[in-house]
Amino acid sequence: MTAPQGSISLSQEHLRESLAACPTWQELCGTAANPASPAAALERTYLHGLPKPSNGESYDPQELQSYRPYAIVSTVQQEGIRWTREASGGSFGVSGRMYLKIERESPDRQGDDPTADAMVTWTNIVGRIGDELCALSDSAGYLACGEIVPVDITYCPHPDLIETEGFWQSAEFLITW
Q1: pLDDT of residue 171
Q2: Model's pTM, two decimal places?
């Protein structure tokens, strides 16, 4: 993989590193009794999307299941990064916005719906990851987040997608840095 350089790639890598340092993400990538190492959690955090499907065309449910849990980091398409300077001159500051999507297999369901416990567990996971990203944002080597907004929390796929994608839960964050 090409080493990240410059403001865009480095900010994406800082977000990947931040997520990999989150104990909740490590636990999700391993087990409660045996959480994944930060390096193993980082391996489940992709830039821009999952690797191409093995058949070159589309994922089958088993292939998607093998990736889960996973996270995807990407820069927002419009105004995802900006360099700004004060009117009086001086050096430029850089800031931007990124998406972070996390997805896991939903462990418990009743027909086409997750159980109430699975929904509360997922909400707890999403909230703890947000809390942990905030706590890391003042530490060197991690993304200095200005705002973290969960823009979509999905408790289960539409019933029409279960056959082709499996049964999953996801959350998307908009992160301003």
Answers
A1: 96
A2: 0.90
